[in-house]
Amino acid sequence: MKILVPVKRVIDYNVKVRVKADQTGVELANVKMAMNPFDEIAVEQAIRLKEAGTATEIVAVSIGPDQSQETIRTALAMGADRGIHVPASHDTEPLAVAKILKALVEKEAPGLVILGKQAIDDDSNQTGQMLSALLGWPQATFASGVEIAGDALNVIREVDGGLEHISSKLPAVITVDLRLNEPRYASLPNIMKAKKKPLDQVSLDDLGVDASQRLTVVKVEEPPAREAGITVASVSELVDKLKNEAKVI
Amino acid sequence: MSILVLAEHDNNELNPATLNAVAAAAQIGGDIHILVAGSGCGGVADAAAKVAGVSKVLSADSAEYANGIAENMIPLIMSVIDGYSHLLAPATTYGKNILPGVAALKDVAQISDIIRVDDADTFQRPIYAGNALATVKSGEALKVITVRTTSFEAVAADGGSAAVEAVGATGDAGKTTFGKSELSSSDRPELTSAKIVISGGRGMQDGSNFAMLEKVADKLGAAVGASRAAVDAGFVPNDYQVGQTGKVVAPDLYVAVGISGAIQHLAGMKDSKVIVAINKDEEAPIFQVADYGLVDDLFSAVPQLEGEL
């Protein structure tokens, strides 16, 4: 079975983002970029399925500017077999991404697509669900446990109230949550090997997808800052402040 | 304009998050209908009919909707959605799971996790874990929207008298089978709606130490939460997690104990009215958002706090 794993290039999760002065977006120039952390978990899961003999090939896909190829190389260094880069704007919306992935699924015929549940830049949490609806495939979102036997898929999902167990049949779309696994680091030899793995480009025209923006970003601004607080010297002072100053207890 | 709000419920009770989504719908303005899809959910439909400002309840009562399986819910929503200008659901795992599929099949963009309504087409939503706020405008014929519940004060659960209309079931899509739930049960208030939340982080060192926080929570009528680090370490279950990818809370009082304050955690709690941080590391970033900071060893401070309440 082939597994398709989309990976997104985003601002590194440790970086404090800055809003641009003209309020058109956040500053991306000279900012450290990295693979979306949820996508790393998706790649790791695919590799584990390959190591277990369930999967035979892992194809990493990234949609975005040329630098997205670096993100694909990271996936290849972790253990994906080949990459596909679809050149597009950094701001490609989830619906367009889902349409592009659908077109790639039709081309590549994977048995499983594993995605991060959300990207930590736009925090949309939409793409996997949209892809599953467009393909008419089962969806298993927010997965913290994945088990595959033949074409049977059993997934444990993290939901607001706790956990949920669901079953479905492949082919399917899985979106992964934080506790599914701990992604491996790419070793230096594997980073070197990844440079030789195949990475193809497929254009939006080849796929016949219109990726134009549907939403207009009117403005992007800083959230209101919290006023500086105070340090209290003791638990007694804290309790006094909460009772008599903040009046919250 | 008419707005359809997807009700979240467990077939017995209407989840209060629905009332926050209705509040957002009321700000958009127009006729507000609620869709209750479940199995044996007549009581929920009746409760939805009493929600203030709601003019009609669509009730789909059939076995395939019992567990909110997205592949069954999406065809149902598609069967009733024509004529609506907006489809709203709370931005809970329930709403997030179902709505994007509807948006995709209607070929419209979804706007996730709105925190403000500017007008019927324009909304504000957090991006980058709330470190930036984007105002977005949608020209789509149908606006599909999930609502951050803490940003909209719930409408009254009573006062309305909407008609309940049964809608035809769309059948089991046969794609996903529900197995079982492992839901945490607690007598304490629900994390996202609690007035006071006390959360523990990696500094708690062990799950058994959360008993200290529970004692304080019980004195304050508070909910207990956790940082990702504490959940990843297995101290507490996943549903305790507050943060960018966990739950977003905005209580009157948030007490962060042994939490360093990563960006991802702050994203889930920085809209709390009053924030208290207890941490022995005075350099911890959590102190930058705290109204009251106590630099102290939590293992002595928390029992003392319990004693003084």
What composes the largest sheet of chain A?
9 strands, mixed
Output the strand order for the largest sheet of chain A.
9-8-7-10-6-1-4-5-11
Regions with little confidence, pLDDT below 50 for 5+ residues of chain A: none
Radius of gyration of chain A, taken over Cα atoms and rounded to an integer in Å: 21 Å
Number of strands of chain A: 13
Mean pLDDT of chain A: 97
Kindly provide the radius of gyration of chain B, computed on alpha-carbon positions and rounded to a whole number of angstroms: 21 Å
Report the mean per-residue pLDDT of chain B as an integer.
97
What global shape of chain A is seen?
Answer: globular
Helix-strand blueprint:
The complex is a heterodimer of chains A (249) and B (309).
Chain A: E1 2-6, E2 9-11, E3 33-35, H1 37-51, E4 57-64, H2 68-78, E5 82-87, H3 94-108, E6 112-116, H4 127-135, E7 139-149, E8 152-159, E9 162-169, E10 172-176, H5 188-194, E11 199-201, H6 204-207, E12 215-221, E13 230-232, H7 235-245
Parallel strand pairs in A: 1-4, 1-6, 4-5, 5-11, 6-10, 7-10
Antiparallel strand pairs in A: 2-3, 7-8, 8-9
Helix pairs in contact in A: 2-5, 3-4
Chain B: E1 2-6, H1 17-28, E2 31-38, H2 42-49, E3 56-61, H3 70-80, E4 86-90, H4 93-106, E5 110-114, E6 116-117, E7 122-127, E8 132-138, E9 143-147, E10 163-166, E11 176-183, E12 196-200, H5 210-220, E13 223-226, H6 228-232, E14 253-257, H7 263-266, E15 274-279, E16 292-295, H8 298-308
Parallel strand pairs in B: 1-2, 1-4, 2-3, 3-10, 4-9, 5-9, 12-13, 12-14, 14-15, 15-16
Antiparallel strand pairs in B: 6-7, 7-8
